[in-house]
Design brief:
Number of domains: 3
Number of strands: 18
CATH class of the largest domain: Mainly Beta
Order of helices and strands: HHHHHEEEEEEEEEEEEEEHEEHEE
Shape: elongated
Structural class: alpha+beta
Largest sheet: 13 strands, mixed
CATH topology of the largest domain: Jelly Rolls
Strand content: 25-35%
Radius of gyration: 34 Å
Number of helices: 7
Distance between the termini: 82 Å
CATH architecture of the largest domain: Sandwich
């Protein structure tokens, strides 16, 4: 409506038939919009000359008048004040030409300017370490041990996309027009603005996404039509070998205290597990302590344990677990051997 009103007032201004009240309104619109100023300047230049440079405006004008004269004229109400019809048609003709010029220029820029090349960065963490970083959009990422995040130095385009191997906790800066997408080996997670954990270690049995705040959408890479939408406290779990996906609730170590959420306890420097099998626990140990763990008896992998540790050494942790289930261990050259 504003553009239509400006065009109407512009025509009256150029035809010399604008009222004092309309002149005030016209000046207000002109001052509020730089493109209006450019358009007015272009048209003023044309009407101060016999013809616009670079365009045969009279020809356009003649075509418009010819087209109008061949149409059946509808019944109209008489106007109170007559306007210079010839001037109006020439205004319309020049406006069309200028609009086409702007469109052509914009199209030229779009098609000829090369897209900005993405500059990628790589953050990784060795065993026994956690790294925190802030992305260009303000999103904060906490990267767990033995993990890698590939991300652009600056986000461009319609989406914000990163690539994760391992585990990371994301607190995504909200931007509804630019979804944030995390790609992993098995799944992709799409969000707008939220806090959640993605666990995608290649040697783990499961790939997981745990939502703390907001809303996320998870798709399995081999089945993009299958979509899982998580609400706060939901957890998505994919069995990597069976390709079976399910939803469950996140787990607390004690009570309902958010500080005791097992899936994100690592961000608070806690090694936590609850009724977990020994095989998955030892995967955590390898990343936490930077060691290798070997089972000399496969049945021991199925033992279940519950525990929480912070500063304890690997020997202190294993000694504590030995008090729950019977097993033995020995350490040689940074490798732990577990046996009966």
């Amino acid at each position: 409506m504003t553009d239509q009103r400006f065009t109407e007032l512009l025509g009256k201004q150029l035809a010399g038939e604008i009222s004092p009240e309309e002149s005030t309104e016209f000046k207000t619109l002109l001052a509020s919009n730089e493109s209006y100023q450019q358009e007015y300047q272009s048209l003023s230049t044309y009407f101060s000359k016999k013809e616009a440079p670079g365009h045969n405006v009279d020809e356009v004008f003649n075509r418009i008048t010819t087209k109008i004269s061949t149409k059946e004229e509808p019944a109209v109400q008489p106007l109170k004040a007559s306007m210079n019809y010839s001037i109006w048609l020439k205004v319309a003709a020049v406006i069309v030409l200028i609009a086409c010029g702007f469109l052509a220029y914009k199209t030229f820029l779009t098609t000829t300017q090369p897209a900005a090349e993405l500059v990628w960065k790589l953050a990784n963490t060795p065993a026994k370490s956690v790294k925190k970083l802030t992305l260009a959009d303000g999103t904060t990422v906490t990267l767990n041990a033995v993990s890698e995040l590939k991300y652009p130095a600056n986000f461009t385009g319609n989406t914000r996309e990163v690539y994760l191997t391992g585990e990371a906790f994301f607190d995504v800066h909200k931007d509804a027009t630019h979804p944030f997408i995390i790609h992993t080996d098995k799944i992709q997670v799409k969000v707008l603005g939220t806090a959640f954990d993605v666990k995608a270690y290649k040697n783990d049995a499961f790939t997981e996404t745990t939502l703390i705040r907001g809303r996320v959408e998870v798709r399995v890479n081999d089945n993009s039509n299958q979509k899982f939408v998580l609400q706060p406290n939901d957890k998505f779990v994919l069995h990597n070998q069976k390709k079976e996906a399910s939803m469950e609730q996140l787990h607390y170590f004690a009570g309902q205290d958010p500080a005791t959420i097992i899936e994100t306890s690592w961000t608070n420097n806690r090694l936590t597990f609850k009724n977990s099998d020994f095989a998955s626990i030892t995967n955590q140990f390898e990343r936490w302590y930077g060691i290798k763990i070997m089972f000399e008896n496969e049945k021991l992998k199925n033992l279940k344990f519950t525990g929480q540790f912070t500063q304890e050494s690997i020997t202190e942790v294993l000694d504590a677990l030995k008090m729950i289930e019977h097993f033995n261990y020995k350490i040689k050259d940074q490798t732990v051997y577990i046996y009966h």
